[in-house]
Amino acid sequence: MSTSESNLNVKRRALGLNTDWRQYIVYFAFVVVFILFSITLHDDGFLTAGNLLNIVRQTAIIAIMAVAMTFVISAAEIDLSVGSIVALSSLTTALALQANLGLLGAVIAGLGTGLLVGLINGLLVTKVGIPSFLVTLAMMGLVSGVAMWITDTEPVTILDETYVAIFGSGNLGAIPSLLIWLLVIVTIGHILLRKATFGRRTLATGGNQSAARFSGINVARIKLYALMGSGLMAGLAGMLYAGRMHSGRFTFGTGDELSVIAAVILGGTSLFGGVGTVIGTVVGAFLIGVINNGLIIMGLDVSQQMIIKGLIIILAVAFGKKQLSN
Amino acid sequence: MQNSEMVLQMSNICKAFNQNSVLEHVDFELNKGEVHALMGGNGAGKSTLMKILTGIYQKDSGKICIDGSEVQIEKPQDSLAHGIAMIFQEFSVIPALTVAQNVFLNRELKKSNGLIDDKAMIRKTKDILDELKVDINPKSLVSELGTGYWQMTEIAKAVSQNAKILIMDEPTSALTQHETEILFDLINNLKNKGISIIYISHRMDEIYKVSDRITVLRDGKHIMTAESSNLSMDNLVEHIVGKNMENAFTWKERHIAKDKPPALKVKDLKSGSKVNGVSFDLYQGEILGIAGLMGSGRSELVRTLFGVDPLDGGEIIMNGTQLSIKKPKDAIQAGFALIPEDRRIQGLVLDHNVRENIILPILNKVSSRQFIKYDKLDHISEALVKKLNIKTDSIFKRASLLSGGNQQKIVFAKWLASEPNILLLDEPTSGVDIGAKSEIIEIVRELADSGKSIIVISSELQELLAFADRIIVLNNGIVTKELERQDIESEEQLEQAVQGL
Lengths: 326, 501
Fold this sequence. Notes:
The complex is a heterodimer of chains A (326) and B (501). Chain A is 75% helix and 2% strand. Chain A contains 14 helices and four strands. Chain A has helices spanning 3-14, 25-40, 49-74, 82-98, 102-128, 132-150, 161-169, 177-194, 197-207, 209-214, 219-245, 256-266, 278-298, 302-325, and strands at 156-157, 171-172, 175-176, 247-248. In chain A, the strands form two sheets. Chain A has a two-stranded antiparallel ribbon with strand order 1-4. Chain B is of the alpha/beta class and 501 residues long. Chain B has helices at 46-53, 76-81, 99-103, 118-131, 147-160, 177-192, 204-210, 233-241, 246-249, 298-305, 328-334, 343-347, 354-359, 374-387, 404-417, 434-449, 461-467, 491-499, and strands at residues 6-17, 20-31, 35-39, 61-66, 69-70, 84-87, 165-169, 196-200, 213-218, 221-227, 264-271, 275-282, 287-291, 313-318, 321-323, 336-339, 367-368, 371-372, 422-426, 453-457, 470-475, 478-484. In chain B, strand 11 and strand 12 (275-282) form a beta hairpin. Classes of the chains: A mainly alpha (326), B alpha/beta (501). Chain A binds chain B through residues 1-3, 5-7, 9-10, 13-14, 19, 191, 195-197, 200-201, 203-204, 207-208, 210-212, 214-217, 270, 274-275, and chain B through 76-77, 80, 86, 88, 91-97, 101, 105-108, 110, 114-116, 135-137, 139-141, 144-146, 149, 157.
C-alpha cells in the first residue's frame, strides 16, 4: 500500500471510521439484534427495565472474565480453564465464609484460588513450554475434579449477607452491584490495554513474538501475567457467582469458557494475537447475553441455546480468519 | 565522506560449535559513516560473525573494540547498549501497531500519570523520519504500509535508540525496485549522519552501488577486504566461491528446433489488473526468460498459467490442444510445474524432511490403494538428491536445517520427481549464494537439454542473460519487447528494454 493510501487510513481512523469493517461488526450486530428483539419480543417484556437488568446480571460475570481473556488472546494464547476456576473459587470462598474467616478471608480465598491456577498455567506455558491450549485444557479437567472433590460435590451455602450484597446480589440504588464490578473491571482493562505499557507489550507479543523479543520485551513474563490475570478474574467471577447464588457449587461456570472466548472473538480481538479491544469484548459479551435472553423469552431450551452459541463462535472465528488473510 | 575514524574493530574472532570450527581468526573493521559489505556463500560465517556482534552467540576467543576500547558483548542488550542494531530482513516489526508505536516499542514515553504518551511518541517519530527524509505517517499502521516501509520503521527505531552501527542482512530481498531506491537514499542519509552500516547481500549490483568497502569470508576465514571501487566483479566472485566460476555465467548458444510447432502457445492471456493480454510461444527444450520491473505482471503471468490466479481471458494451447486450467491441479496434470518465488512459504514444508518434501507431488504415483510405497520413494529421493547435488546428511534431514541454496534444490527435486514438460521458475536463485546459483543455472540448462521447456523469471539480468535462449520483456502486463539472446549484446541493452527506453 502506498503512503498516501495509508495517510487516508490514518484520517479515517481519526474520524472513528475503520478501514476494516469487521472490527465494528459486533457493534452493528448488537444494535441490529437488540432492535429486532425489541420489536418481535416487545409483548413478552424484552424491553422492560427488569429484563434489561436481568441481561446485565447474566452477562456481567462472563464479561468480567472476557476482559481478562482479551489480554490472553491478544498475546496469542488461550485459557480454557476459566470455567473450572469459577467453580473452585465459588467453593473456596463459601468454605472460607463458613469457617468464619470473614470478608477478607473470603476475598483472599476466592481471588487466591484464581491467581494460583493462573500462575500454574502461566508457569507451565512459559517455563515448561507446553502450549497454553494443552495446559489449560488439562487444568480445566484437573480444577473441575478438585472442585467436585473438596466438598464431595455438595454445595456450600453462604449466609453472610454483607458478602452476597457486595458480590453479586445487592444493588446500589437501582444499579446492581454486578454492573459496578463490570464497570470497574472494564475501565481498568481498557486503560491497561490502550494506554499502559503492559497492553502495548501484550499486543506486540501476540502480533510478532520474535520482533517483540528483539525489542527487549520479556515475552514470557507478558504471557505469565496475562494468564494470571485471566485466572484472577475467573476467581472474581466465581466469587460473584457465589454471591449471586448464595452458595458455592461445583457446577458453576461449567461451559463458561465457551461464552468468554466467543465474546472476545466476536468483539474483534484476533484469535491469532496482536489485535485486541476490551470495549469490543464487552459488547461481544452483551451480544451473546441479549441473544441468550431473547432465546429464553422465545421459549428455547438450554440445548438449543448451546447450539446457537456454538454457531456464533464458528461464525466469529470464520470472520476473524478472513481478517488474518487480508 | 572519507572518514577513517574506526568505530568497530573485531579481531581474531574464533567460534566453534561442538569442535566444528565456524570462524577462524576473523578480522573485521568498520569506519564511521562507512557502508561495509560482508560477503560470502552460505556457511561462510557471515551470520555467525554478526550473531557474535549482536550478542546472540558468544565468541570463543578474540577481541571486539568499539570506538577504540574493548567491550564485552554477552547478550543482545549489551550490543544495543553499545549502539549496535540489527535490521532484520522482514517481519521484525509488529504489523498491528502504528509506526510510532513500533519505534518506541518497549521504551514507551509516558505522561506524569504513568500512562502512555502517544502524542509525544508520534511527534518524536516524525522528527526522526523527517531527519531521515522518509515519507511515512507515524500514525499509519505498519500493516498498511508496503514491506519496504517496514524496514524503514525498523531503521527509524534503531536511530531513535542512538544506534551508530546498523547491520542490514539482505535488506532488499523483499523490496520492489522503487523501494530499493528509497532504501539506498536512506542509507546515504544515515552515512551523512555518521552512522556506519554492515551490509550483507548476495546481490552484486547492489553491493557495488552501496558499499565503500567489501570484506569476503569463506569457510569461516577472512579472505580479503578491499575498497569496492578497486575490486572487479570477476575478482570478487572468485574470492567468494574460491574458484573461477565464469563458466556458469557465460551464455552458451543452444540449438532449438523451431520447425516443429511450439510446445506451448499462449494467446492474449488476461488475469486481473496485472496481466493484460500476453501472447508468446515456447518451443520444446527452450529456456524463455521473462524480464520486467516489479509489478510488471511477471509473477502474475506464471501464476495464471499455473492456475493460481484466475484466467480472465485468452488461450493456453499445449502441443495443439487447448487447455482449461482452473486450478493448480489442472496445470500439474497438463505437465506444468511451478517453482515459486518464495520457497519458504510456497515451495517447502520446512519442518518435514527432504524426502517428505520431494515426494509431495508424486504421492499418487507411488501409492497403491492409498498406501505409500516407501522403498520406492527412498530410491527416487536418493537419486534426485544425487542428481541435483543437494548437500544433506540424508534424505531424512529436516528441510529447515539446510542452506537456502539446498532448499531451493529440494524444490527443484520435488517438481522433477513429477516429470513435468514445462517448468515455470519464478526467481529461482533469489537468496542463494553464488555457488548454489551457478549450480542451479547448470541444472536448468541440463533440464532444457533433456527436452523440457522452461519459463524463467529473474530480476537479475546477468543471470537471465546467462541461460535464456530468448527473452520477453513485460511492462504493465503486456509484452513490450521480444529479444533473441544472440541479438542482445550487453546487459545495458536489456536493462534499457526493461526500463522501457
